[in-house]
Amino acid sequence: MNVLVDRFDVFAGGFWLTLQICILAGIGALLIGTIMAVLRISPVAPLRAVGTAYVTVFRNVPLTVVLFFSAFGLPALGSNARFLDVPGLNVVFSRLGTDLPYFRFAVLGLCLYTGAFVCEALRSGVNAVAPGQAEAARAIGLTFTQSLRYVILPQAWKSAVVPLGSVIIAMIKNSALAGFFGVVGDLSQTADSLVSADGLPLIPVFIGISIGYLIMTVPLGILLDRVERRVATR
Amino acid sequence: MRLTRFAALAASAALMLGAAACGGGGSSGGSGSDVKKDVKFDAGTTMEALNKAQKIKIGTKFDQPLFGLKGLDGKPAGFDVEIAKIIAGELGIPADKIEWVETPSKVREEYIEQAKVDMVVATYTINDARKQRIDFAGPYYVAGQQILTRKDDNSISGPDSFKDGTKKVCSVTGSTPAKTIEQYLKDKATQLVLFDTYAKCADAVKNKQVDALTTDNVILSGFVSQSPNDFKLVGSKFTQEPYGIGVKKGDTKFRAFINDVLEKIAKDGRYEKAWKDTVGKVDSNTPSAPAVDRY
């Protein structure tokens, strides 16, 4: 087990890179998911259709395929996903600004895929709000945006928080696939290179990366439990 | 869940590679497998046990074109496979009694230690870290790392071309070549791309996402032979990767037996035939068998 101590720097580097992917993809997925959820419950039929189409496509295609199209389809179309190279953000997340696009491709693929699940988690929350609430909001003359903002979403959030948490935890674990699409040095890929190129024993190394993923997911789970308790007792 | 995805990915990649490699020409049916009928081994040796059981479990790659690649017929084929068949034949075991076990790079030591295989012939580079856990017979081939680029790209001449930090290179996750090329790079984060198969790297080179692909020369030769209009090899081999046959640590007699076989086939032409039937299809220079290392 001293592998974990001897190669701590490698594990730490892998952890940091996976964390970067997860933070960026998490933010992106929440944004995309919220937009899509609003589209899906909007009163305008074409907008609803857009939201539904998005969820249908990205929820039903395996993540490996989404990542594959992201890593090999976009370059074929001539895109290097440069739009993700946001000034400021690329200082903290240095991989966003590199010439190698695979980090951006992985973040993008993970965003698009997880966004569909975030959308459905939020929509389930909205559906849990009693219809009378929306009707009452309309009755007192609130617009669609106002009723969402002041009446529906604050209540929807309560029942959406648990499924949302599960979606994000699933996303953290799904990020392990990024290493198979050109991202060098993330947590699970670190394990592969330690085991096969350096000849380290398999089991301690995989225990090491499991700890890495647990450090990300367990506190998130605990936090969600707290949040759930707080919103539920109100 | 994640594992099934890996498996599916690996399987589909292997299938694609398999289909591509099969296009090259018909497979060589069971060459080099003349079975010794009246062999006698000392009691208590691994050779005697295997001979008596009339069965041997051999680990090889199922996804390595030219060396060990499982085709659509379900049987692995390649140079490693031919060498393994010859050794089995010398043990008095016919090729159809061999149980082929897939041994990807990261499980090879484990499988030998746990006796899931009797020996491993799987583009297995001999090195000291591995010798701590298992023993190697051979080498039976010395590969070397080289660089492949686009045919129209003259800006790369060897590993030193990566030192200024502008050129990007691709290799396979967890492989020795990926490790080796790191020391020629200025910044790993901006210059190195790793995939799970070489086919993806080749695609990335073709798409100009990266400038070069690096790994052992024989694998690169396979890609150049498949698309000579897109790719070329540049520079010379800059590492020595002696491929050995992995056996259980401490089984000196079995190791000596395999070494004897390797020395014998280097002289009697069976080594050359095994090469010509497999790798020789893309690399016409038959190497002379390297001297075995009886450490």
From TrEMBL, chain A:
Pfam families: BPD_transp_1
Family matches, as InterPro entries: AA_ABC_transptr_permease_3TM, ArtM/GltK/GlnP/TcyL/YhdX-like, MetI-like, MetI-like_sf
Membrane-related topology note: Multi-pass membrane protein
Transmembrane segments: 15-39, 60-81, 101-119, 160-182, 202-224
Compartment annotation: Cell membrane
CDD domains per the UniProt record, alphabetical: TM_PBP2
Range of residues in the leader sequence: none
Annotated keywords: Amino-acid transport, Cell membrane, Membrane, Transmembrane, Transmembrane helix, Transport
All residue ranges annotated as the ABC transmembrane type-1 domain in the record: 15-224
Chief location bin: membrane
Domain of life, source organism: Bacteria
Family as reported in the entry's similarity comment: Belongs to the binding-protein-dependent transport system permease family. HisMQ subfamily.
NCBIfam families to which the protein is assigned, alphabetical: HEQRo_perm_3TM
Name under which the protein is recorded: Amino acid ABC transporter permease
From TrEMBL, chain B:
Domain Solute-binding protein family 3/N-terminal: 55-282
Entries under InterPro entries matching the protein: Bact_solute-bind_prot3, Solute-binding_3/MltF_N
Signal peptide: 1-21
Pfam families: SBP_bac_3
Keywords: Signal, Transport
Xref: Gene3D superfamilies: Periplasmic binding protein-like II (3.40.190.10)
Assigned protein family: Belongs to the bacterial solute-binding protein 3 family.
Record's protein name: Glutamate ABC transporter substrate-binding protein
Species in which this protein is naturally found: Planosporangium thailandense
Lineage: Bacteria, Bacillati, Actinomycetota, Actinomycetes, Micromonosporales
